[in-house]
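Posted in: Protein Modeling Q&A

I'm a second-year student putting together a small comparison for a lab meeting, and my supervisor asked me to include a predicted structure for MerR family DNA-binding protein. I've never done this before, so apologies if this is the wrong subforum. The sequence is pasted below exactly as I got it from our records. If anyone can share the structure token output, I'd also love a short note on what stands out.
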Amino acid sequence: MRNLTIGRAAREAGVGVETIRFYERQGLIAQPAKGSGYRTYSPEVVARIRFIRQAQRIGFSLKEAQELLALRADPEADCADVRAQARHKIAEVDERISELLRVRAALEAVVASCPGHGGLSGCTILEALDQAPPEAAACRCDEPMKRKSP
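Accepted answer (user: helix_wrangler)
Welcome! Here is the predicted structure, written out as tokens:
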């Protein structure tokens, strides 16, 4: 397969043209040389884009996908390094699942207390949202999560 225009490369990789441009700006793929006035992409770049997209599909961030690509390119890297990255991602997913289960339980509790009819002045769900539980003061839900080292 010879080099492809950006549109053709996007179709081959299963992404939009803007995704390719974004990946270039983020340094995930190299900006190609212009051939015949058009930017052309090699089959290797298309494969790299597919790799990034697949990593995203299974939960890796773009930064993590870039780290995996760097490991893949490092002749000194070991499969254990990649496995450690994946195990770290599993731990993050487990943490998110736990948090979502806590959220679900809280929602189920307020829904169970709701009579499901009547005026809004007696809506127990709205009343519950007006009440700030004591632990809410310590909640850091809006703060970015700190990454744990693998």
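A couple of things worth pointing out for your meeting: The helical segments are 6-13, 17-26, 43-57, 62-73, 79-113, 124-130. The CA atoms of residues 99 and 141 lie 10 Å apart.
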